[in-house]
Amino acid sequence: MKKITLLTSLENDGYIHDDNLLVNELEASGYMVQSKAWETLQDEGEDLFIIRTAWNYTEHLEEFFKCLESIKDRLWNPLSLVKWNADKKYLYELYQKGLGVIPLSIADDKLSLTKSLDKLGGDEFIAKPLIGAGASGLVRFNRSNLPSIDKETIIQKFYPEITQGELSLIYFDGKFAYAVKKTPKVGEIRVQEEFGGIVSAYTPTDEQHRLGAEFVGSIPGKWLYARVDIVPGIGVIELECVEPSLFFSRCDQGAKLFIEAISKYV
Question: For residue 166, which of 131, 141, 198 has the smallest C-alpha distance?
Answer without folding.
Answer: 198
